[in-house]
Amino acid sequence: MAEKAGADVDEARAWDERLGWAFGLIADDPAARAAALVRLAEAQRNVAEALGRSNEMWWLTRPLGADEQYREPAFLQARRRYQQAQRHSLPDGVWGRPVGGDLATWPGLPYALLFLEWEARYPREWTEYAKAWGTKQSLIRDVARTHQDEAVKAKLTDLVEIVVHRAYRCKDREYVRVARAVDSADLRGRLDRAADSDSPWARCQAGYVLWLLDHPDLPNTRHVWRAWVAGRLRH
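Below the sequence we write its predicted C-alpha cells.
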C-alpha cells in the first residue's frame, strides 16, 4: 500500500513538472497569464515539430511494410518524441486519462479541472490558444461521473456558477451533468441568485438548470431545452 502511495506521489510530481506552469493560465494577474501563454505557445510548437518529424519518418519507412515499419527504431523514436511533447502541452496533455474509470485518484484530474476553469474564466484566450470542444465535452462528462471530494465539489460548483452567468458557449449545456452531480443547497442558492439577476443569460440558464435539478428524470436534450424555453416565454 505504501509502495502504491509512493508511486502516486511520483506520478503527481511528474504531472507538476510537465504542466505546473499551466496554472498561470487561470491566474488573476494578466502578466502571469501572459507568461503562461508564452509557455503554451512554445509547447505547442514543440508538438507541431515533433508531429512533423514523426510524419516524415512514417513516410520514409513506409516502403518497409506495416510490420517492419512499426519496428523501425527511427520511426519509433520519432513517435515517442511526439507523444512526449504532447504530454507537456494543452489540450493534448489531458487526453490520456483512464477510460471508463473513476478519475478521483487520477493525478491528471487537477489539470483537467484547470482546462475547464480556463475555458470558463478566460474563454477568449482559451479559444485562441487551445480551442477543443470535444475535449471540453468529454472532460465535463468525466468529471461529472467522478467521485468528488469537497475540494473538487467546490471547484465544480464554481464552474457551474460561472457558466450560467455568461452568454452560451459550445458544450455549456453539458454542465447540467455537473450540477446534478454536485447538487447542494450552496449550488441552488447561487443559481437562485443568478435566476433573479439582471442578466438575461443568467436568468434563462440558471432557471433551466434549477428546473432540471427539480426534475432529475428529465434528459438534458435540445428538445427538453427548447420546450423549457418555449414554456418560459409563454409565461
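The two ends are 59 Å apart (CA to CA).
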